Amino acid sequence: MEAPEPIGFIGAGALAGFLADGLLAAGWPPAALWICNRGDDARLLRFAGAGVHVTRAKAEVCGRAAMLLILVKPKDAPATLAELAPLLRPDHLVVSCMAGIPAAFIEGALGGRPRVLRAMPNIGSAARASVTGLAPGRYADAADVDRAAGVLQAVGMVAPVQESAMDAFTAVCGSGPAYVFLLMEALAAVAADLGLRGPLAQRMIVQTVLGAARVAAASERPPEELRAGVSSRGGTTMAAVEVLEAAGFRQALGEAVRRAAARSRELGLAWASLPPESGVRGTRP
Ligand SMILES: NC(=O)c1ccc[n+]([C@@H]2O[C@H](COP(=O)([O-])OP(=O)(O)OC[C@H]3O[C@@H](n4cnc5c(N)ncnc54)[C@H](OP(=O)(O)O)[C@@H]3O)[C@@H](O)[C@H]2O)c1
Q: Ligand 1: which residue has its CA nearest to atom 19?
C-alpha cells in the first residue's frame, strides 16, 4: 500500500480535531499531518500530544503538504486566504470546509488558477458519521475530487455534488442534524409529560432515532414503506402519524428546509459580490 499523502490543516479547531482523529483512526501516520493555527497554543498542544506536526507557520504546512484543508471560520476567510496566496504552488489542492463561501471567492482571493474544492461536512464528523458534500471549483478535476474524498471519508460518507447543489445540500444535510435534535427535544418534552423523565428517557429517545436510522440504512426500502410497515390500521403509530399529517408536519419541514437553502444562497451571493482583494482588506459579508 502506498504511504498516505501528507495533509496540511489550516486551522486547529473543532472540525480539525474530528478530521485528525478520523485520519489517525483510518491509518494515517501522525507524521503525515501538518497542522497550523493562528494563535491558540492550547489547541495546537492537543494535536501535538497525538504526534502530529504543529506549527504557527503556514509556509511550513504548505511546504510539506500538497493537500490543504481550510478549517477556519468563514469570518476569518479573507485574512487566511491572503496569507496563503503567496505560498501556493500549482500542485496544491485546496479543500475548503468553510460553510457558505463559494469556490469562486476562494479562487479569486488566492489568485491564478488554484485547484479548489468546496467540502461541506456536518456535525456527524464528530462520530465519523458525517455526510460531506464535495464540489469542485473551476480548476479542479475529477481526480482532485477522488483525492479529497479519500481524505474526507475519514469522517464519514462523501457525496460528490455540483456547487450549484451546495445550497440544497447545506439545507438538507448540513443543517439536517439540527432538525433531528429538535425532533428529539420535542419527543423528550412530551415523554416527560407522559411520565418518562430523566437520563434514561433521553437515552431511549436517542436509541429510537438511531434504531430507525440503522434500519433505513440497512434496508433497500424507501422510508414511506418502512413507515407503512410499522403503522397498522387502527393502531397507535397510525393515530400519531394522522395527527402529524393533519398538523402540517411535512409542510413545516419543507418550508424550513427551503428557508435554509435560501439563506445559504443569500450568504453565498454576499461573498460572491466581494472583490477578490477583500482578502487583503479583511472585509467580509
Ligand atoms: N464544526 C463542524 O462540525 C463543522 C461542520 C461543517 C463545516 N464546518 C466549517 O469548518 C470551519 C471550522 O469550523 P470549526 O467548528 O472547526 O471552527 P473553530 O473551532 O472555531 O476553529 C477554527 C480555527 O481556525 C483558526 N484560525 C482562524 N484564523 C486563522 C488563520 N488566519 N490562520 C490559521 N488558523 C486560523 C482558529 O484559531 P484561533 O484559535 O487562534 O482563533 C481556530 O482554531 C468553519 O468554516 C465551519 O463553517 C465546521
A: 13
d(CA 61, CA 7) in angstroms, rounded, equals 8
Euclidean distance between CA atoms 34 and 8, whole angstroms: 5
190 CB-side CA count, 13 A: 7
The beta strand positions in the chain, using DSSP E, are: 7-10, 33-36, 53-55, 67-70, 93-96, 115-120, 130-136, 156-160
* Model pLDDT for residues 185-221, shown as the tens digit of each residue: 999 999 999 999 999 999 999 999 999 999 999 999 9
- Residues sharing a CB contact under 8 Å with residue 230, sequence separation 6 or more, in sequence order: 237
Question: And the C-alpha cell for 180?
Answer: 433531528
Residues within a 6 A CB radius of ligand 1? 10-16, 36-40, 43, 71-74, 76, 79-80, 83, 97-99, 121-123, 125
For the chain, list the domains and their CATH numbers: 7-163 (3.40.50.720), 175-247 (1.10.3730.10)
> Residue 281 pLDDT more than 50?
no
CA of 120 to the centre of ligand 1 (A): 13
How far apart, in whole angstroms, are the C-alpha atoms of residue 47 and residue 64?
Answer: 17
Per the document, the length of the chain is 285
CB atoms within 10 A of CB 24: 17
